[in-house]
Structure formats: structure tokens, C-alpha cells
Amino acid sequence: MTTNRHAVLIADVIGSRTRKDLRAVLAKRLAAATRTHLKAQIRLPYAVTAGDEFQTILAARINIPELIFDLRSKLRPLRLRIGIGFGQVSGRVQQPVNLMGGEAFQRARRALEGVKQDNSKYDVLTAFQSGNEIFDSTANLIYALQDTLLIKVTNKQWDTIQAYRADRRLGIAARILKLNRSTVSRNLKRGYFWQIERTISAMDRLIRASKV
């Protein structure tokens, strides 16, 4: 991201109409995510702007793919569709985020709507719009592949991923989960964790190299 541009994240909850406790769960999960991400990774608190939808402006020079993955992890059991838009923001960056606008917000909105209306033969959870056609097509292809893996991750595998990511040591994760190291290792492998980690790293390099 160049210094005069911003990245905006807009997300909504999949299957929100089937959850009677959505507002309470979403508020609790977003509060926890804000405490972790505010200032270092997001410039404004995550704010619910319409029913099951929330948004924020991302901090400069962060690892955006890592943030997306961590946000998905922290909001479990809720499943998210996410749109990321790069571009100008009109006015000062300040609360409330839902009164802000500009190119980055418009592109994030179009990216999210594209996920909702996607008619491909596979499920898509994440999309990017930057105004750079080559970057967008590459980033969205990478995420189509990552999302295909992500959808297959079971609750048990997610629990293992969260425990491992807390300290990134198999032994500690095993103690937390009361499992042996081989089971933790197997759950990470079956949960496609290592492939997802590689796509996160590759996408971070692509974003920085593209200077979107």
C-alpha cells in the first residue's frame, strides 16, 4: 500500500438468518478481535454497520492475509465473507466508520458483493479489488484456492490451529489440547494449515510487491 492509499475491509456473516444469537455472538467476537488488532493492524475498531455486516480501515504496511486469517479464527463459529478494497478514502480517518466513504470503500463493497453473487462451481469467501487488473485476478485466484481448503477445515482442526498459532510450538499446543504431539501434527496437516500458511506468505509478498 502506498502512503496516500488505504485498504478497507468489509465482511458479513454467512447464514446469519439461521442464528438467533447473532448480534450477541458477533459483538463479543468483534470486541475481542478489536482488542487484538486495534492500532497495530486496524486503524478503527471493527464496527457493525448493517445487521450482520461490519467494516474497518486497515493499518498501513500490515500483513493483510494474516489479519484475514486471524479474523476468521477469532470470529468462529461465525463464518465470514470478506471484501478488501484498496484506494483513496475521502476525508479524515475517524469514527464512525460507516459515515466514511471513497474509492477504497466502494471497491471493498464491490469485492464483497462479488463474493455473494459468485456463480463459479466452487465456493469463494474472499475477494480483492484494487483497480489493478493483474493484481486482482492473481490475488482472487490465490484466495479461491485457499478458500477451497479453508471450507474443509473441521472444528477440531480449527481448535488445533488456534492452539498452535498461540505459541507455534507443537508441545505447548499438545498440552493445551490434552493431545499428543503426533495428533496435533496430524490435525494441522489434515486442516491444510501448512498450505494456508504458504498462501498467506505468498499473498503478503504479492501485495507489497504490487504496491496497491
Task: Describe the model.
- This protein is of the alpha+beta class and 212 residues long.
- It is globular and about 55 Å long.
- The protein has a domain at 6-132: Alpha-Beta Plaits, CATH 3.30.70.270.
- The chain is built from eight helices and five strands.
Sequence-ordered SSE layout with sheet pairings:
Elements: E1 6-13, H1 22-37, E2 47-50, E3 53-57, H2 64-74, E4 80-87, H3 103-116, E5 126-129, H4 133-150, H5 155-167, H6 170-177, H7 181-190, H8 193-210
Parallel strand pairs: 4-5
Antiparallel strand pairs: 1-3, 1-4, 2-3
CATH class identity of the domain at 6-132: Alpha Beta
The N- and C-terminal alpha carbons lie at a distance of: 5 Å
Shape annotation: globular
Q: Bin the helical content.
A: 40-55%
Supply the helix-strand structural class: alpha+beta
CATH superfamily of the domain at 6-132: Reverse transcriptase/Diguanylate cyclase domain
- Kindly report the CATH topology of the domain at 6-132: Alpha-Beta Plaits
Main sheet specs: 5 strands, mixed
Total strands? 5
CATH architecture of the domain at 6-132: 2-Layer Sandwich
Strand content: 5-15%
Gyration radius from CA atoms, angstroms: 17 Å
Elements, N to C (H/E): EHEEHEHEHHHHH
Within the largest sheet, what's the order of strands? Answer: 2-3-1-4-5
